[in-house]
Specification:
Elements lengths: L3 E3 L9 E2 L2 E2 L5 H14 L6 E3 L5 E3 L4 E8 L2 E9 L17 H5 L3
């Protein structure tokens, strides 16, 4: 069973949530827009920040990571099945494989 999918910031594909582009975007602007949309919909009970500073939205199963692309950082979304949303952004005890936290850092 597939439990999570990570999207490469540089090659995509482009994915959207509620009309907001999540792949290969400027992290600060995307974080702000995502946070606002989540709050508007009352889905802000499970917002967490990982040890790397990535936002994790447990209610909808999205971890918004960043990926280096030359001299800049771009957004790299990770989508998780409901069984994996608990501690999704936890780099030490969360469900994502250790390799995810050491790749694209």
């Amino acid at each position: 069973m597939l439990a999570a999918v990570a999207i490469d910031a540089r090659v995509g594909p482009q994915v959207r949530w509620d009309g907001l582009a999540l792949t290969g975007q400027v992290p600060s602007a995307t974080d702000d827009a995502m946070y606002a949309r989540v709050q508007e919909r009352g889905l802000d009970q499970e917002i967490r920040i990982s040890q790397h500073g990535d936002y994790s939205y447990g209610d909808i199963g999205i971890l918004l990571r960043v990926q280096r692309a030359g001299d800049i950082l771009l957004t790299r979304p990770v989508f998780a099945a409901p069984a994996w949303t608990d501690r999704l952004g936890d780099t030490s005890e969360g469900p994502l494989p250790t390799q995810e936290w050491h790749t694209h850092a």
